[in-house]
Each structure stands twice: as structure tokens, then as C-alpha cells.
Amino acid sequence: MKKLLSIILTMILLMTAIACAETFKIGMVAPITGASSLVGEYMTNGFNLAAKEINASGGILGREIELVLADEVDTAQKSVNAMQLLLSEDDICAIIGSYYSSNAIAALPDVLDAGVLTMVCGSSSGVSKEGNPYAWQARPLDTAQGAAMANFIVNDLNAKNPAILYSTNSALSSLEEQLVAALSRLGVDIPKANLFGHPEDESNFAPYFAQIVAGDFDCIVSLETTALAAIVCQAAETAGIDTEKIPCVGATAFSNTITIQNGGTAAEGWYSVADWVPGGASDVGRAFEDAYQAEYGTASDLGAAVVYDSIFLIKAACEIAGTTTDREAINEALNKIDTRPGAMSTFSYNEDHSFATSLMITRNVDSEAKVITAVNYR
């Protein structure tokens, strides 16, 4: 009897090991609880939709995708802790996250030590400046966003004296620097009096808008996280700013579904330089949106799109490398991705470890971010 039980136990362990070997585990750092949990929900939905599509067509080289989720809640330290937890798992071959560039940058030393391919969901060029060979980004970087925003402000809105309100976290400070530099190249120099930096945990924007309203500005630019974008829209409306009279231009967060829902009428009329709006600007983007709405009964958001595209980039790397187990080979294969259509953009390898080649200029109209034009920057 003991021998029989031993054989059965061995078979169970063997079958468990085989089952584990047949899945391709991808870790994801996301805010599942806390103030930004809705972002985490979109990210998880994007992951599950990509996994469903890939698994239905045979998986990645025959292995089904399995999600291993780590909750970063809403602080940088908890985000680092979540990343360390995933990096400690030997059977995780790739990681997605964080959505917040500053959180991701804080965890990059651990990523380098572990040598695990990591698709960062943020857009800060600060990620690429780290020179980490295992850190990649599917989204357009702030260098491209700053240039596109400056061009739109000067050449489309004919603004010469914009006020720039921005969060002083590392990612948005970087975007502010890129924007100011790009405006200067177009002949619009921004004095310090036009810059309104604020802490990333700011909640009262009335004093900032009081100064902006009192100034002689012909455009308002706001660079905020998703958590603050709707609050800024509402503060602008309360201050009496009419987007039909003074154009208001925001970073990507201002076109997000979350911002439009939470901002209500205050978000109407805001322009944005966007990575993603529901439906995108291509056939692949529209197909993703149709599938997302069929699956979840609501419009998508950037968090879902960037995770969805990141998984397909990982899949492409595995197929190029011909392996789902050799971490180093999979990471190296990302260098060989060329002209791959995605939901957000057409993707191609760039030496800064980013893949997107385009973004969109949008405007919020009737509670939706409408695409005005697509901007190809590579």
C-alpha cells in the first residue's frame, strides 16, 4: 500500500510539473488595490484578452500564457516589492509593468540583477536613459510626445504664450523638459513665469488656476497622471476657463476613459497628445477595441492597450528566438522586431528600447476622445 501511494504521489508531482512546464508564465506589476485600482483593472483586462486570443490559436510555441499578478497598490516602494516578488520566481520568463514610469525606474536595478525581460508600461525617456538591457517600452516616449505637442500648440493652435501646469514627478518633469525644449526649437521660448509645477500628490489646484487666469496666456497645457487629470479639468472649469476660448492641451492621461468618465463635462474640449484612445487609428486598433468591448462590455483604456500590445511583442520575441524558456535569447530577440502592427501603433525596434512609431492628437467631444490626426515620428 505504501509503495502504491508513493507511486501515485510521484505521478501527481510529475503531472503537476508537466502542467507547469506547458504554460508560459508572464508576471505583471499593477495597482490591483488602492487609489489606482481602476488602472490595474484595465491592465488585467488587456492581459487576459491577449492571453485568450493567443491561447486560442495554440499559445506561444505551443505553451499557453499564464498570468502571475503582483499588486503594487499605490506607492513606489510597494511597486518595487511587487517586482522583487516576481523576479524571485524562476519560472517567470517575462514581466510587464509598472504603468508608472517612476515606479518602474525604481525597480530597474533589481531587473538588471535578475536579467528578466521587462516591458515597462510608462512613457518616460528616463527608463531608456538607465541603459538597462532588459527594460523595454511599447509606448511612445516623452521625447516624441513633447515634440508632437509643441508642434500642435504652435502650428495648429497658433499659441505663442502657453501656461504649463505639470506634476513634478520624474516622468512628467521629463515630459515638461521635452516640451519646453521642443517649443524653443519652434521659436517659442517659455519663461519661468509660464511654468506651474506642483507635487504629484496635489489636490487643490485653485491657486494655480487663479494665477493662470490672471496671466495673459493663450493656451493652457497640463501634464498629469491619470489620478489627477480629471481633478485638473474640474479645477479649470471651476476657475471659469472655457476650452472654446482658451485651448487646453493635456498629456495622454487627458484622453483616457478614466479621466473622461471622472471629469464629466469638465473634460469636454480638452486636446491631448495620446498613445491610445478607444478604437485607435488603425485596423488593428479597431479590432482590439471591438474584441475588448465584446469581452468586457465597456470601452478600453490605455492600460489595457499597452499591456495587450506588450504581450504580443513578447510573443513575437519568443517566436524569433525559437524558445519560451531561454530568458536571454527572448530578450535579445526583441532587437529583431521590425514593422509589427499593433493596437496602439506599428512597432519596430529602436536603439532606445522603445517600439512605437506613432501617436495621436485627440479632442474630447461628447464624452469621447476623438482622433484628429495620427502623427508618425519614425
List keywords for this structure.
globular, 378 residues, five-stranded parallel β-sheet, disordered N terminus, single chain, 13 helices, alpha/beta, seven-stranded mixed β-sheet
Briefly summarize what is shown.
The protein has 378 residues and is α/β, with parallel strands linked by helices.
Report on this model:
The chain has 378 residues and is an alpha/beta fold. The chain is built from 13 helices and 14 strands. It has helices at residues 2-21, 37-56, 76-87, 101-114, 125-129, 142-156, 170-185, 206-214, 226-238, 257-263, 283-296, 302-321, 327-333; strands at 23-30, 64-71, 92-96, 117-120, 135-137, 162-167, 195-198, 219-223, 248-250, 271-274, 340-341, 346-347, 358-365, 368-376. The strands form three sheets. A seven-stranded mixed sheet has the order 7-6-8-9-10-13-14, with helices on one face. The protein has a five-stranded parallel sheet with strand order 2-1-3-4-5, sandwiched between helices. The radius of gyration is 22 Å and the shape is globular. The N and C termini lie far apart (69 Å). The relative contact order is 0.13. Mean pLDDT is 92; it is low at 1-20.
Determine the fraction of residues in helical runs and give it as a percent range. 40-55%
What does the average pLDDT come to? 92
Rg value: 22 Å
Would you identify the regions where 5 or more consecutive residues have pLDDT less than 50?
Answer: 1-20
Structural class: alpha/beta
Distance between the termini: 69 Å
The fraction of residues in strands falls at 15-25%
Largest sheet entry = 7 strands, mixed
Secondary structure tally, helices: 13
Number of separate strands: 14
Molecular shape = globular
